[in-house]
Amino acid sequence: MAHKSSLLIIDNFDSFTFNLVQLVEESEVHDYEIVRSDQLDTEQINQFTSILISPGPGLPADFPDMCHVIRQFGPTKRILGICLGHQAIAEVYGGRLINLREVNHGVTTKMKIVQSDEKLFDGVSDGESVGLYHSWVVDPSDLPGCLDVTAVSEEGNILALRHKEYDVWGLQFHPESIMTKAGKRIMNNWLKNLLFIPLLVLLLFASCKQKFEPVDERKVFRYNEAANITSLDPAFARDQANIWATHQLFNGLVQLNNKLEVLPCIARSWDISDDGLQYIFHLRQDVRFHDDPCFPAGEGRRVIADDFAYSFSRLRDPATAAAGAWVFNHVVAENPFLAIDDSTLAIRMANPFPPFPGLLTMQYCSVIPWEAVTYYGSEFRERPVGTGAFQLAYWKEGVKLVMIRNPHYFEVENGKQLPFLEAVSVTFLADKQAAFLQFVQGKLDFMSGIDPSYKDELLTREGQLNPKFADRFHLITQPYLNTEYLGILVDPLSRLMKGNSLKIKLVRKAINLAFDRRKMIMYLRNNIGIPGIYGMIPPGMPGFDSARIWYDYQPERAVQLLEEAGFSQDREIPSITLVTTPDYLDICKYIQHQVAAIGITLEIEVSPPAAVKEMKAQAKIPFFRASWIADYPDAENYLSLFYSPNFSPYGPNYTHYRNPEYDKLFKQSMSITEEGARLEAYQKMERIMMKDAPVIILYYDQVLRFVWNNVYGIGGNPMNLLTLKRVYKENTNSG
Fold first, then answer.
1. Does 165 share its domain with 229?
2. Would the pTM of this model clear 0.85, i.e. be above it?
3. Which of 32, 110, 273, 674 minimizes the number of CB atoms within 10 Å of its CB?
4. Is residue 240 part of a domain?
């Protein structure tokens, strides 16, 4: 076993091994090695990607080394056990064997396939004859929850099984037997590597000295990501799928807690100059990069200040073309990042920007080693090296991502080293209905969000979990920093607004009061969301003002405002056109119906998202549906939408709102370093804007997280980050 091979065949002293080898050869797989089960070297088994276990005499207990291989490498490699190997798989994962009354040696039976999605039986007809050579079978009455039966005999005995999480299969019959007509096809199916991807593949780097420890499946956290991950490079962590993955793999100077407070991470503390133009970060000295071949001897080294200077400079470099380069828009142009010594980093600002520490919590600002970028080049996106609680073990784009525990992680909780999990397994089922079924069956530990296809199955009308699921999983509902609103172009110089009644502030206020947001959320969103009766700053964001209700349902007052604006039965208000995307048509129709009661005719125009986005940016829509999701935990995120220097297309002020007093306060707030005083300034600005009513707040979003009852520590936060380093699983209730 001196060189790396794709297939290890374990010979259990059985003549049928020769027949198995013939099938392997006929399948055009020539890169294999055969090893007797009493000569197995577990350290060298890491060289193989797949393991085929032959039949053999006796029972699994007679072959302890074989059982050890299944136990240790089941989570990381593709394994197929034949007859004795099949029985060993069942016993290793908690099953037991029973002895049949009649001898089953050299007899045939008809196979009934009970799992139609079993790739092993692609092209195999139900009722195929198979050959049996063993009188011991797996007891179907005592099958562990982690195993699925995929085929049974005419007599009801288990003929085939598979592990629910690992890529481990067992066949009671002999595919290599002349009596198994479809044996060659079954073996061909298994030997097609692209059909099967292991749950936990080791970092198979020749220079890596890290030894893989057996994984306890009870400590593997499983979730599905409907959207594909496009990169594991934190410089491109723009979308949620990328953010969630890189959040497990990397760290930055600072981090957020669930209250959105900025806390130390790799920086143990920091100082800010009185003028807000310099930040000094003092680094921990016990943080090291993941072990990786990019380092000498494959051992990760200590993180120093120069690594942050390198990482931040790379993020800003136009050659990187990073999605997150804007994070450092407020630093000086020349030498903004200075490593004073190995443990001290200085960042120099071009202008004060108090939200800056919050920006540094973003995944864009993760530290990476220059050695990895040099070593992997463009492949760094798929071979990430960080400092996070987990490190990459395997990634097959669009199929599976596996991250394993970082044994050198620096954070502890209550004296215990984080993380508590041994691994994280991510699948990529684009079909949300299929992912939902996987979750309900216990094959996933966690599900975020809810699709209309199963909304009524999971939730009551009040937005609570359907009681029939309460004994299996629970629901976490949390604010999400996303404000859904209707934007109004209020630029008096815009030719689009000539003759448009939305130019009149009283009309905008009337529409704000003319529809019942509470009923809208209850009937159209199953109470998922908070009615938009407050300001632009959403719940969960520091600066949210829950004491001031701006626009609740008051149709009588709305009629009065229209009359004050000069409209009545004798002088009807001209019809107004609202532009929306298809996914918000139900809400827009609801508003259309309700404002009709106060005499407003609302026309709805549905356009593709890309078209709406472009027209918003070019200020070519007088009235549009929009939303704003916070990138970082500071209300400046939302208030910048109404700062006049940010007029679109050069900024996010899509309404072209302008108020000199607002602009003055916004500029002043950027020099206020004391958070309480800054939040007070933010609320003053919001009051000015809401009185002018350039927007109609619909609702503040919420995130739903469905979590199995044996999973603890998942929590939630308004940024919708998925933090897994404190998560643990207590038992195997989820299967």
1. no
2. no
3. 674
4. yes
Does one domain contain both 684 and 580? yes
Cβ atoms < 10 Å from Cβ of 359: 22
Rounded to an integer, what distance in angstroms lies between the CA atom of residue 508 and that of residue 516? Answer: 16
**Do 180 and 226 have their domain in common?**
no
Is there a single domain that holds both residue 168 and residue 230? no
Which one from 67, 83, 208, 588 is the annotated catalytic residue?
83
Written as one string, the DSSP assignment of 115-132 is -TT-GGGTTPPTT-EEEE
- Our answer to whether residue 83 is catalytic in this structure is yes
**For 136-231, where are the alpha helices, taking DSSP H only?**
183-191
CA-based angle 352:354:360, to the nearest 5? Answer: 110
- Which residue among 86, 134, 163, 174 is the active-site one? 174
Catalytic: 656?
no
What CATH code is carried by the domain that includes residue 573?
3.10.105.10
Per-residue pLDDT of 347-399, as tens digits, reads: 999 999 999 999 999 999 999 999 999 999 999 999 999 999 999 998 888 87
Domain span at residue 427 reads 217-433
Q: How far apart are CA 426 and CA 404, in angstroms?
A: 12
Q: How far apart are CA 245 and CA 363, in angstroms?
A: 10
Q: Alpha carbon of 547 to those of 225, 533, 534: distances in Å?
A: 38, 11, 8
Segment 297-328, tens digit of pLDDT: 999 999 999 999 999 999 999 999 998 999 99
Does 205 map to a domain? no
